[in-house]
Amino acid sequence: MHTKRQRFYQSIDAFWHDLYDTEYALYDVKLETKETVFAIQQAANRVGHVFFKTAQLLRALDDETLLSLGFPTESLAFIRLKTMDMESVISRLDFVVHDSEIKLLELNADTPTFIKELFHVNGRVCDHFNVQDPNEQEEKRLAFLLHRAIFNAYHSLKQSTYPNVVFSSHGDHDEDKLTTTYLMELANVHAKYVPLHELKIIDEPIYEQGRLVTESGLYDADGERVDVLYRQTYPIEHLVEDEDPDTHEKVGQMLMKLVEQNKLAIINPPSAFLLQSKAIQVLIWGLHEEKHSFFTEEEHDWIHTYFLPTYLEEDTFWEKKISYVKKPSFGREGDTVEIYHGNGEKAAEDIHKTYQDAIPIYQQFVPLPTTEITTEKGKERAHVMYGCFLLNGKASAVGIRAGNQITDNASYYLPIGLQKEK
Predict the structure, then answer these.
(1) Which helix (H) or strand (E) is 401 found in, with range?
(2) What is the mean pLDDT of residues 277-288?
């Protein structure tokens, strides 16, 4: 089994089938019906519509309300910016799928991962196991969208020369770097990959003897000013806190100032960060409970069908003795997530506490279903969570993470295929 798996995955160029020296991509495929995949994508289209509509409302909120939703104070200067016609180029919704019931866990609108797995690797696995890939045409859609988004972002700068496009990530993390270079190749534009630590910000124009020598801007390792920065795995909530280790300058805030001044375009755009806080689900659910006219009757029906009750306090769950999940408003990979029984007793928690200072939200608990998976150690049962990507708000590739009840960075990638119709 080990040899088969290694031989197969090593045939896929630039893929991290093992992570942290442990098995990540399973030599296995879970078969689903076309009806199930369609239902997930339909849910994604409807949920995505609700989120993207809510972005209009978020831009109209005052600073105090945005702070109550968990947004960092440092982000208020740019959070309402609409720099391109896409709220988010690539985002991912996470769902619990129980037979015919589909419930939303969260949206990662800003820096979604799991991209190469679903858009590229899944097809290779399906070919190998001789089953149909549910994501068959999605890589072409992704390539087209990336190309369009880069020039859309650049045109917002009102420049006329060919853009200097840079794709960047932390260069010492295989998954981040290889996802980023995959997207760069897929975009089919003249671009370069530059690790984050090699980028340099010039905050103020530099003059020598009264003559402008260097304009303010973001510069790559070749000393060329960057027009479009694709920051695949550089979350804005981390970015605004970033500082130069030598000068202690807040380089992340300096970078966003360049975006505000229209001297740099970033993808995903700032509007994606506006939808990143899990507290947006508190706002959506609150408007739904009020039967607010902001949402149409059909949209209220979608919220009732797919969203879970979500609040800024746990009181409602205590009163009704309903199990719930405490999540940080900004957080990833299950980090800092805790599950509670209806009496307030803790049932489970993630060992990592990176986001414990973030404003928490409280969401009704729905257990993840389990399935049998094949690992190098043999057969195991694992909890499964379904992800569905949105490309400019429209449903795209579907896939599965398998692991613990709290899906963390130790979870497996479980490929997905379509059952043959009888």
Answers:
(1) strand 394-403
(2) 97
Contact between residue 88 and residue 271 where contact means Cβ atoms under 8 Å apart: yes
Tokens of 331: 């957080």
Q: Residue 123 is which amino acid?
A: G
Determine phi and psi for 322, rounding to 5 degrees.
-110, 135
Rounded Cα distance between 223 and 64, Å, is 40
Q: How far apart are CA 17 and CA 417, in angstroms?
A: 18
DSSP calls for 293-333: TTS-HHHHHHHHHHPPPEESSSHHHHHHT--EEEEESS--T
Q: Of 410, 331, 339, nearest to 368 (Cα)?
A: 339
* 3-state SS assignment for residue 339: strand
CB 399 within 8 A of CB 381: no
Tokens at residue 112, please?
């979604």
The whole-angstrom separation of Cα 53 and Cα 57 is 7
pLDDT band at 206 (very low <50, low <70, confident <90, very high): confident
The CA-atom distances, in angstroms, between 287 and each of 72, 211, 322 are 23, 56, 21
pLDDT in tens, 385-412: 999 999 999 999 999 999 999 887 789 9
pLDDT at residue 209, as a whole number: 80
Cis peptide before 409 (omega within 30 of 0): no
- What is the bridge-based pairing of β-strands 324-328 and 360-364? antiparallel
For tokens 């800003």, what's the residue? Answer: 110
The pLDDT of 323-332, averaged and rounded, is: 92
- Residue 411 backbone class (left: φ over 0; alpha: ψ -120 to 50; beta: rest): beta
Tokens of 257: 């100032």
Q: In one letter, which amino acid is 198?
A: E
Residues contacting residue 291 through CB under 8 Å, at least 6 positions apart: 300
Q: How far is C-alpha 421 from the chain's CA centre?
A: 33
pLDDT at 323 over 80: yes
List residues bridging with 206 in a β-sheet.
Answer: 214
pTM exceeding the 0.90 threshold for the entire prediction: yes
Please state the φ and ψ torsions of residue 43, each to the nearest 5 degrees.
-60, -45
At 228-246, the pLDDT tens digits run 999 978 788 888 888 877 7
Residue 291: how many other CB atoms lie within 10 Å: 9
